[in-house]
Amino acid sequence: MDINNKIATRDSYGNKLATLGEINKNIVVLDADLSAATKTSIFAKKFPERFFNMGIAEQDMISTAAGMATCGQIPYASTFAMFAAGRAYDQIRNSICYPKLNVKICATHSGISVGEDGATHQMLEDISLMRGLPNMTVLSVSDDIQTKWAVEEILKINGPVYLRLGRLASPVIYEENQKFEIGKAIQIGEGTDATVIATGLMVSEAIKAKEELEKQGINIRVIDMHTIKPIDKEAIIKSAKETKRIITIEDHSIIGGLGSAVCEVLSEEYPTKVTRLGMKDSFGKSGKAEKLLEYYGLCAEGIIKEITNNQ
After folding, report:
1. If you ran DSSP here, which 8-state letter would residue 93 be given?
2. If we measure between CA atoms, which residue out of 160, 139, 136, 162 comes closest to residue 149?
3. How many domains is the chain partitioned into structurally?
4. Residues annotated catalytic, as ranges
C-alpha cells in the first residue's frame, strides 16, 4: 500500500468512465447538477451528446435512466449517496430493480467522510437500503485500482448496480495487475489472531492497523469486502474458522451494512461472535473528515484499540 499516493475514488470513477465512453457507445451519463463533484464532468467534456444534467431532480434522473435502459442504452447515474440512495429510493425500487433494468447508480460522497457537509449529507444507510433490494448488486470500492476495475466490470452485469464511492482521497492499495472478481473478497495476510473485514475507505485503515499490530506480535488478516451483495460467504466462513476473532469496520451504520451482512452469514453457516465497528445508530457531525473518522473510531487506531483491549 502506498500511503503517499492518495486518490479519491470519485476521481478514479470520472477518469475511467470517460475512457469507457470511447469503447462503448451505448454508455450515457446522467448527473443531478453535481458533475464537478462526482467527476462526471470529465465524461461530459468528451461526450457532451451523451451527458445529461438533470438538475436538482434525483427522482427524475433515475426515472430517465430507467427509460434509457429500456432503449438499449447503459446509463451511469451519479449524484451524492445521500440523494442517490435516499431521495430516489422509490424510483430505484420500482423503476429499476423491479423490472431489473440495466442501470448503474454510482454514488459519491458516502459516509461521514463527507466531512464538513455534516449529518444531512453524510449517507450512513445506503448499503442497507440498496442490499435489501431484489436484483441489486452492491459494491463499495477501496482504492483507485479497484474503482477503475469496478466501473468497467459492472458493464458486464445486465441489471441494476449500486457502486459506492468516496469523497476523501485514500491510499492506493493494489498493483495494476491485481485480479478482482465481483462477489469474491480479497484476503490480505494470513494472520490468525483476528480477521478485520473492511470495505471502502476502511480497507486502508485496516491495513495500517495490521502493520502496526505486527510490531506488537499480533498477526491479523484483512478482508477487503468490495462486494457487499452478493457477499463472499466462503471468505467469511473460512476466516471465522481460521482466526480467533471477527471484526468488521465500515464508514456506514452498523445496522444493515457490512457488519450485519457478515453476521447474517455466520449466524446461519458458522455461529461466531462478531464485533462491528461503524456508526452506532447515530447521525454524524460536521468537521474535518479525518477528525470525524478518528472521533468515531473509524481508523487504524480504533481497530488497534479494539483488538489490544480485548485479547
Report:
1. I
2. 139
3. 2
4. 58
- Flag residues of the chain having pLDDT under 70: 2-3, 311
Residue 179 is assigned to a structural domain of this protein: no
Do 221 and 162 lie in one domain? The reply is: no
Enter the pTM of the model.
Answer: 0.97
| Residue range(s) defining the domain that contains residue 297 | 186-308
Kindly give, in sequence order, each residue whose CB lies less than 8 Å from that of residue 139, ignoring residues fewer than 6 positions away.
150, 154, 161, 162, 163, 164, 182, 226, 227, 228
The answer to whether position 150 is within a domain reads yes
Single-letter code of the amino acid located at 141: V
Q: What is the pLDDT of residue 309?
A: 85
Give me the pLDDT at residue 247, please.
98
**187-212, pLDDT tens digit by residue?**
999 999 999 999 999 999 999 999 99
Residue 56 and residue 22 share a domain: yes
- Phi and psi angles of residue 26, each rounded to the nearest 5 degrees, phi first: -85, -10
Residue with cell 429499476: 96
CA distances from 181 to 63, 160, 172 (A): 29, 17, 18
User: How much of the chain is in helix, strand and coil states, percent to nearest 5?
Assistant: 45, 25, 35
SS3 151: helix
The pLDDT of residue 310 is 74
Query: Quick check: is 193 in a domain?
Result: yes
Residues 17 and 137 both lie in one domain: yes
- Count how many Cα atoms sit within 13 Å of the Cα of residue 294 in the half-sphere of its side chain: 5
Contacts of residue 3, defined as CB under 8 A and 6 or more positions apart, other chains included, come to: 171, 204, 208
